Hints:
It contains 12 helices and 35 strands. It is of the alpha+beta class. It has an 8-stranded mixed β-sheet, with helices on both faces. Strands 1-2-3-4 form a 4-stranded antiparallel β-sheet, with no helix packed on it. β14 (195-201) and β15 (208-213) form a beta hairpin. α6 packs across α7 (503-514). It is globular and about 70 Å long. The chain starts with a helix and ends with a helix.
Amino acid sequence: MRALLISCLFFAVVSVQAAELTLEDFARPSQFLEIEISPSGKYLAATSRSEEGNVYLNVIDIKSNKIISVRHFTGRDSIGSIDWANNERLLITLVRDIGALEQPVGTGEIFAVNADGSNARMLTGYRSETEKDPAQVINYLPDDDKYVLITTSTPNRKGSFSLVKRLNIENGRTRQVARAPMRSSGMITDNNGVARMAVGEDQDNDNEMVMMYRKDEKSDWVTLRRYGQRDGSFLPIAFLADNKRVVGISDTQTDTKALSVMDPETGKEEILAHHPKVDVTPSFSIEDGFLKEVIGASYEYDTHEDVFFADVKDKTFSGYLQSLKAAFPGKKIAINSATRDNSILVLTTRSANHPPEFYLFDTKNNQLSFLLNGRPWMKSELLAETKAIIYKSRDGLDIHAILTLPRGVEAKNLPLIMNPHGGPHGPRDFLEINPDAKVLAQHGYAVLQPNFRGSGGFGRSFLQAGYQNWGTTMINDMTDGVMHLVEQGIVNQDRVCAYGGSYGGYAALMSAVREPDLYKCTVGFVGVFDLNLMYTDGDIQERKSGINYLEMAIGRNQEQLDAQSPIKHLDKLKAPVFIIHGEEDRRVPIIHAHRLREELDKRNHPYEWLVKEKEGHGFYKPENNVERWQKMLAFFDKYIGDKQAAN
């Protein structure tokens, strides 16, 4: 079986033996993003990203060793996820891309197709012939080959309800089976397929989330809890085997998100796993396609760690995961899918210094077989080394960061690129391969990715400490990280530049404004440069929830907005600027780039300019990213490269 699988999935792999990785190597899309094995083990469904950015689907018949169908979508439409609804039929959720730096937006459309490509049909959404409302699957009903459970709701209509329906995956017909008295953003069923818990926005107060519950199929829904924007919350994931208790992620009793079990009848929670510095996520066993039991938790701080509980019932599945963890020390392990009888598991391994690899695990024979490398040309031995570091901010906070250093060079007196992430609230930088960091480090630069206050994953108080401090204490955290590396002797204080995308582009320019003698140049990629524009331009302010977010994150005070907008303080700026943008960016429209250029022109301030048509919030096309890196490297070399060090 192993030989068949390797050969059938290596159909598009080109062997690369290179002394050094090229910019084109880093820009090439991953060969495979997700691989799902069918319930019977007959097929593999694999998603890949095209050079235009769209995700497409290949289905491989394992026995015949052939690709039997390919499915792709056009324009901004792309594949969000794939799942086998039965042995022969796949369900695809569609998304719309807004750019490489933001999560795609779900369209509510569910598309179905057979493994061989036949009977392709849009089942839900405005392009469906039957169910016009947007929908999401909440239960794949593994004992029923013709139906799945979905929820539908009419967006932005006050007084509308989330409806639970049985969806025929062949013809798209639906039948309502339940209704929740709210527009639910998430609903879970018990192990009998009965929808019993829902979470969604309050109909009368968009700033509040409501969690509702019912005891059984015939009972009325009752409100369990309400959560304000700044409150801790319980996010339900699944009912446990007893069909009474619910496991979820919670920060109602802790600052960081803990793994918790709730009894909805009493509202009481029991914490299963908690880390004082970072959020944890659950590990489940799988049985008959369902999440069966919580068997452990994982978290990432200075390293990625997995913890397994001793008192679990499904010791067999727990044993699988523990043996796999031992087989791949230092790597993250994820079970992507399994056959219905768990005889074959598909898993991925990855780390900050190793591209994702796919494996098959034959549980009956306890045999692990290599399947493929998602980016086979990206040899781990050629990658710059990435690790986590912890440093203190000037006011005493522990700041977690990712540091990437050039390979084969002494970590001493290096030029540095300070590279803050976007968001800023919610995202964080993990120990994973970041193409920007790897490219810059390969060309001789140390790269610091600070998880400044306001980042997600480090607790509610840490997250909220960033609210309305985009240009103040959050910037201080970044500067403190630079100075930490200077004090360690790793970085040359006279050779520092800043680069970031989205909020990171804002932070790169604001850092150079705040610290004009530290930063010798700055690059803003699809960056926010005037906070006032966030209320008038872009897609965030188009939704009431978006306005609520802006009022919380940056505030309404005009004096404060101006004080924290780098475009208002360009007279303090010494560093040359490189402005990079996508012409079709709707998240941060190109007006930000144009306004910044106009103000720099008024001051005769040095800058460079790169704008790409048909790119949005981040670049997808490999050739555009190659050009971006080429020009960025030339820009950095000009101001902090080796020639500058010699002067």
